[in-house]
Every structure is written in structure tokens, then in C-alpha cells.
Amino acid sequence: MVPSVDGRIVVTRWKLPASVTGEYERTAATFGADAWMIGRISMEPYAGKARIPARKDSRPIPRTDFIARRDAESYAIALDPSGKLTWKSSSIDDEHVIAVLTEQVSDDYLAFLQSKGVSYLFGGKTDLNLKRVLGKLTKEFGIRKLLLEGGGKINGSFLAADLIDELSVLVAPIADGAVGAPSLFDAKEGKGPARHLKLVSFEKRTGDLVWLRYTLKR
């Protein structure tokens, strides 16, 4: 993640130099992760737009996981509980797409994902059980190290579920100041799940970015 010094994460209005993207990719690569995960809104630019046709087959599709492939070198995972992403392809660059859904999605949408070769997992009936999702990702795809890349609500949900081992942020030399703007961790309304961290390292990077790494105290 690339937050401002006050923790905001809407980078599009900051006019950051292109070098920031390079720094982000370089630091992310040091973790040797098997996959990366973001939410629906963050994934929309990657998914593209496609039409979801109505099914001719009236038989219901069972709510069981669909695994299109298990042999990808890396995976791009979208948390999309309601099934709103309309994928043009089953991959982002060379990374195989996995959609994480709830059982409320339509049969038309499941048939659409199958036709595109997009793998999908069910994380719950109406809400996602994140611990269950991580267990399935390990069991079905061998994913053992995952980069969680936002947005703030997803980060906050993983924090609340105590599913984060390490926090890595590239702090941008920006003071945002926008009231109500999404932040690095957005909990549900009210008191959030405050957690104590242990500083592992800090490093100045290109463009006055500061790379901070923490582990979570347990």
C-alpha cells in the first residue's frame, strides 16, 4: 500500500511521479508471494467489461468451488461477494484470476465465470469468512504467502480477523487532509480493532518514499 502521511490511500489525486509505481512493484517483489488480493472496486480497472449472457440451461448450478487451473505461477484474487466484476479474461498478465464469492450470486454469473475460465471459491452464504477463504486458497491452489493490497475496508476486515502477519507500507510524502477519504484500515462504524505493531525496518526510497515494515504483536 502507498498511504499518505495521514493514512489516506486515494492516490489518484496526488499526482505522484511514475517512479512510485516502480518502487511499489520492487518492494512487493521482495516478499516472493504466491498471490495478491484486492477488493472489487480496486479490481475493476483490471477486470475490464464484458456482457453476462442469460443462461439457456434452467438447471441450478451447485454452490461448489470451481477450479479452472492450479498450475499458475501467481494468482490475482478478487474479493467480490456479490459477483459484480465482468471479466474479459481469466488472467491479469500471466496471473490466473480467482474470484471469492458468496452463495448469493446468480447462476448466470457462475456460468459466465466458468465460460471465461475464471476460478471461483465460496467464502460463505451471505458474508465472507476470511479465515475460511485463506484455508481454501492454501488447499486448492497451494497459496501460502499472500499480498493483501487493499482497499481500506478489506484491510480493516483482515485486521479485525487477526489474519495479518506483517504490514508493509510505502509512505508517500503527501499530506492529504481529506475528511472521510478511505484510509489504510477502515473498520466498521464505531471503534476499530486497534492492534499493536513491532517495527521491523525502515528505509528511505526513491522520491522521498519511506518503506516501513512491521509485524503484528500477538
Overview of the molecule:
By secondary structure, this protein is α/β, with parallel strands linked by helices. The protein has two domains: 1-32 and 150-218, Dihydrofolate Reductase, subunit A, CATH 3.40.430; 34-144, no CATH class. 23% of the residues lie in helices and 22% in strands. The protein contains five helices and nine strands; from the N terminus they run H-E-H-E-E-E-H-E-H-E-H-E-E-E. It has helices spanning 19-29, 40-47, 107-116, 130-141, 152-160, and strands at residues 35-39, 75-79, 91-92, 95-101, 119-122, 146-148, 166-171, 197-205, 209-216. Strands 1, 2, 3, 4, 5 and 6 form a six-stranded mixed sheet that branches. Strands 7-9-8 form a three-stranded antiparallel sheet, with helices on one face. The longest helix is centred in the middle third of the chain and has 12 residues, at 130-141. The model has no long low-confidence stretch (mean pLDDT 94). GO terms for molecular function: 5-amino-6-(5-phosphoribosylamino)uracil reductase activity. It comes from Hyalangium minutum. Pfam families: RibD_C.
The proportion of strand residues reads: 15-25%
* Broad shape: globular
- Write down how many β-strands occur, each being a DSSP E stretch of 2 or more residues: 9
Task: List the total number of helices.
Answer: 5
Kindly name the structural category: alpha/beta
| Overall pLDDT score | 94
> What's the alpha carbon Rg, rounded to whole Å?
18 Å
Number of domains: 2
* H-E order: HEHEEEHEHEHEEE
Unreliable stretches (pLDDT < 50, length at least 5) are none
Oligomer: single chain
Distance between the termini: 22 Å
Sheet having the most strands: 6 strands, mixed
Q: Helical amount among residues, as a percent range?
A: 10-25%
GO molecular function: 5-amino-6-(5-phosphoribosylamino)uracil reductase activity
InterPro entries: DHFR-like_dom_sf (IPR024072), RibDG_C (IPR002734), Riboflavin_Biosynth_HTPR (IPR050765)
Pathway: Cofactor biosynthesis; riboflavin biosynthesis
Pfam families: RibD_C (PF01872)
